[in-house]
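Session log. Operator J.P. requested a structure for one protein chain; no other inputs attached. Running the standard single-chain path with token output.
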Amino acid sequence: MTINCKGLLVDLSAPKVMGILNVTPNSFFDGGKYKNETEILSQVEKMVVDGATFIDIGAYSSKPNAEFVAEQEEIYRIVPVVDLILKHFPEAILSIDTFRGEVAKASIESGAAIINDIAAGNLDNNMFEIIAKYNVPYVMMHMRGNPQTMQTLTDYDDIVKEMLFYFSEKVAKARSFGINDLMIDPGFGFAKTVGQNYEVFQKMELFNMLELPLLVGVSRKSMIYKTLGTTIENALNGTTVLNTLALTKGAKILRVHDVKEAVECVALFNKINL
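Structure written below.
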């Protein structure tokens, strides 16, 4: 199970870690944390040293009720960061967290290798065409609506069944465009209640029937800290528990704020399973 990242084949038979770098002023955990080039490079270096295979850059907060960001503003935030990182870390594999085709295009042309789309093309009709044109790996997440409306769209008859149908349709569409490298993300916290998040997690191995790499992002999310009655700042232990369980259910990429701890999860999982 490999993906082609700008000519580099990344083998996902052993799970990998994707470190999160938010260059937004308002992301739910680390928004506004990195204010200049030195701070950005310091964080990237830490994630690389700690063992991240991918760095996922986001410039539009997708937390519930996040404020709208204009397309050009998103490009303005992301492209200089891509340029900066690749200048200092030319071997870095950069993923871009965006649902906009033009942002994806500008990022790929600057050297990004993966597009991570929370909407799986639902919020931009040009996304599939752009992914196909540039032939980059594409992460398709499950979400209803958009970040402003998603938490009002949590009424499902059978959430896992609906998600499997959703992904089957998305995969078929992507294949029709000639997109080769696809990954799926269940979208924990997106158009799902806390209870629904755990129902999806419990049945997550069912997504393996799609025969695509599974990316899981539960890092410090409310499904953890609300359940434990704690805070985002104190949600690392819970994150580590769910990351470990996600690996046992087939996760191939862990998307996290805390790279070192996730890499340790993977190392111990591999010791037992590989």
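Operator note: Confidence is low (pLDDT under 50) at residues 26-31.
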